[in-house]
Amino acid sequence: MEKFKFNIDQKPDYSFLTVQIPANTTLKVEASAMATMDTNIQMKTKFKGGLGRLFTGESLFINEFTAQNGPGEITIAPSAPGDMSHVYLDNQTIFLQNSAYVASDPSVNIETKFQGLTKMFFSGEGMFLIKASGTGDLWFNSYGAILEIDVTDQYVVDTGHIVAFTEGLDYNVTKIGGYKSLFFSGEGFVCRFRGQGKVWIQTRKIGPLTTFLYPFRPKKNN
To answer: Are 165 and 94 in contact (CB under 8 A)?
Structure first.
């Protein structure tokens, strides 16, 4: 049963989350994501996620917001321009790309998972995922809109489009086509999921954006 009443505005381009925190209840939020809050909400910062996040450039900290002496409202704005999704975990586990976590119920355990050198597939995310497990509300975001896909057997996704997936799906990373395709077609590595579960994908990926913007970068005059 969901503990928090919430609303997500401005989907799917610049999603903005509003959460009603019941009295004497705490909400965990990614560092620097809070936009506004009622004056009776108190914040504490805690070290979370494990040292793995240090190597990804993501924050090592999660802020805890507690509504004291009555309920309170908080609004949350993720850094990436894109969509946001909510999942209620019922003794379940979801794996997120390292920058996707937004907020969660304190009963949801958030930790960094090393995925191994052979599964370094999230574009810009490297060797680590975020493992969210337990029971409670979970919010995550993307770059671009989010599509939820039911996998019943096998499914192939470009690695730069993956936002999250449920535990129980097996996966491996392969290149699409040969090495000529890898360097000249614009296509790179894909993730081949197997089993039954859900995959959340984003409609845009960061790599092509940075390539597009590169010619417009400021240049120093010699």
So the answer is: yes
